Amino acid sequence: MGYKVVVAGATGNVGREMLNILAEREFPVDEIAALASRKSLGTEISFGDKTVKTKDLETFDFTGWDIALFAVGSDATKIYAPRAAAAGCVVIDNSSLYRYDPQVPLIVPEVNADAIIGYKNKNIIANPNCSTAQMVVALKPLHDRARIKRVVVSTYQSVSGAGKEGIDELWDQTKGMYVPGKEVAPKKFTKQIAFNVIPQIDVFLDDGSTKEEWKMVAETKKILDPKIKVTATCVRVPVFVGHSEAINIEFEDSIDWQEAQDILREAPGIYVVSGFWGLFGFDWHGVLLSSGGLRLRLAGVSALAARAYFLLCGQKKVAKEKATPGSVPAAPVPCATRNAGRLRNSGLRPSNSARRLPPAFLRCSAPPKGPGKPPGAEMGAATMGTG
User: Fold this and answer.
1) Looking at residue 287, what is its pLDDT?
2) Which of 130, 234, 335, 364 is an active site residue?
3) What ranges in the chain are assigned the alpha helix state H?
4) Distances 195 to 86, 192, 213, 338 between C-alpha atoms, Å
5) Cβ atoms of 61 and 33 closer than 8 Å
6) Marked catalytic residue, from 143, 234, 243, 364
7) Ordered DSSP codes for 208-225
8) What was the pLDDT predicted at 258?
9) 82, 127, 268, 334: which is deepest, by most CB within 10 A?
10) Angle formed by the axes of helices 130-146 and 257-266, nearest 10°
11) How far apart are CA 151 and CA 131, in angstroms?
12) SS3 string of 149-188?
């Protein structure tokens, strides 16, 4: 027996992706309803091998429907989500409206699935900000082992996080840079996004941080542990789809990079590519493979003193390859050599700049030998995922 499922905001990027994932994951759907604003009434939307026409969100009757996925923004959610919940339909909200409501569970299935029982309070479940979600998936198994004290995270967030308007603006501005007289002024973003990075996502708060940064702090505490100290710096980058994060973690208990790698390899929702040098080798593809991903990809684990460095990105399907856990070359291999296979596949040639390792990577080495490990290990991580 399946469910009767509603997707509100079905014509937007997030709503379309919800429909795609429901079909791809073969979620047991008996009946689907795609809702949108009145101006999009009747728009045809794909759902697997079917096509459905959108209905008007304003007049839709949620009675008899089981689940409603909301991707319509906080303003519309504030009006229609309570209506759906009152009609007995369980609302799963993608906006920020209910994330900080103590009576509404904020859920990442790999992290705090048990908390979902709290939906009974209001018949509503919230899901977190995209950057928080991918981070806590990686933090959870490490927190269970060594208790995290502090997290310092820098994000590199794609324009997909700003919706269709953000994607269109990057596309139009990029084209306009090469056509005199066709330059496109920023509208969705505060500054030009093409060939630029913008250290502002959402509005600035009184303390000088942005609301996006505040979201990561508040949501991590609610989902994972209120005692964890979090500092976030969120940056918009000119990438269409796929968020990335660099994370430094301080633990209560000692944990080395090899054990952390083993823990993450067994954790749900994460795929580990062993070896720091995988960053530049055959199985490293950067953010390109994170588009539409349902899993985090962890690549490149090495250590500098008590620190370890990871790289994760979202990916749907990954061929699991055997590798020696924790293997680190005795000496750096030229970057162009490590990139040879990937460059051959792409049809590109290594540039002069690719013949040297970036200075930050040249400093990395095998874990220090002998005694003297600090009681609280620090760990760095870079994550990539979808937004």
Assistant:
1) 54
2) 130
3) 13-24, 73-86, 109-112, 130-146, 163-176, 211-223, 257-266, 335-338, 340-346, 359-362
4) 47, 8, 23, 27
5) no
6) 243
7) S-BHHHHHHHHHHHHHT-
8) 84
9) 127
10) 120
11) 14
12) EEEEEEEEECHHHHHHHHHHHHHHHHHHCCCCCCCCCCCC
pTM equals 0.76
Q: What is the mean pLDDT of each run of 10 residues along the chain (387 residues)?
A: 95 93 95 96 95 97 98 96 98 97 97 96 97 95 96 95 94 95 95 97 96 98 98 97 90 90 89 58 50 53 38 36 37 35 35 34 34 45 48
DSSP 198: B
Place of tokens 């995922």: 385
What pLDDT is stored for residue 1 in this prediction? Answer: 79
364 has catalytic annotation: no
For residue 27, what are its two tokens? 């979620």
Write down the pLDDT at residue 115.
Answer: 97
Q: Tell me, yes or no, if 130 is annotated catalytic.
A: yes
Pairwise CA distance, residues 385 & 387, whole Å: 7
Residue at 254: amino acid letter: S
The answer to whether 381 and 251 have CB atoms below 8 angstroms apart is no
CB-CB contact of 297 with 314 (8 Å)? yes
Within 10 angstroms of residue 72's Cβ, the number of other Cβ atoms is 26
Closest by CA to 89, choosing from 120, 62, 56, 70, is 62
- Side chain identity, residue 231: T
